[in-house]
């Protein structure tokens, strides 16, 4: 009986969270004071200005991402931004560089999750497991940029996704429509040449 009540409570909590997140995505200025900027979760450089509950869409200059906490356009390495390919449901992905983290996409809104100390995210099981039971070999961004060498990391959620390392952080990018990331050539390429796994 207690187990069934806990299960029902967990289901209701998940549904409530899903409804709130979905509504926030469709009505980004709902409950937001006038003059406050909020994220556009479909674009790292996009944001909305809220006035009277009405969102006015805007975009940061090229090369900058919107930082909601600071209320300004900022360097990408200072902002966590991961654009979710699917705008509905919940998806889990391994973090591109940290084995003890994962990315959750919920109704198109992403956030980073952390495994408990001593655990690593298992992409196949979509759960954190003992680090001794998970073989995690992720690419790492160098702490210091080398201006003579660009470091790329393959994508984690789709064939057209890849990351560029900038100031020690992976910055999400996408190939043009119809192209896939070629891991060997480190460039966007025709799907038959990229051979996405």
Q: In a few lines, what is going on in this structure?
A:
By secondary structure, the protein is an alpha+beta fold. Helix content is 15%, strand content 35%.
Describe this structure in words.
- By secondary structure, this protein is of the alpha+beta class.
- The protein folds into three domains: about 50 residues, no CATH class; about 55 residues, no CATH class; about 55 residues, Antimicrobial Protein, Tachycitin, Chain A (Beta Complex), CATH 2.170.140.10.
- Helices cover about 15% and strands about 35% of the residues.
- It has two helices and 15 strands.
- The strands form six sheets. It has a three-stranded antiparallel β-sheet with strand order 1-2-3, with no helix packed on it. Strands 6-7-8 form a three-stranded antiparallel β-sheet.
- The longest helix is centred in the first third of the chain and has 25 residues.
Low-pLDDT ranges = 1-24
At CATH level 3, the topology of the largest domain is Antimicrobial Protein, Tachycitin, Chain A
Q: What would CATH call the homologous superfamily of the largest domain?
A: Chitin binding domain
Could you tell me the number of beta strands? 15
What portion of the residues fall into strands of 2 or more residues? Answer: 25-35%
Strand order of the largest sheet: 1-2-3
CATH class call of the largest domain: Mainly Beta
Portion of residues within helices: 10-25%
CATH second-level architecture of the largest domain: Beta Complex
Name the shape in a single word: globular
Structural class: alpha+beta
How many separate structural domains? Answer: 3
| Run of helices and strands | HEEEEEEEEEEEEEEEH
Distance between the termini: 45 Å
Oligomer: single chain
Q: What integer value in Å does the Rg equal?
A: 19 Å
Mean pLDDT: 84
Number of helices: 2
Largest sheet: 3 strands, antiparallel
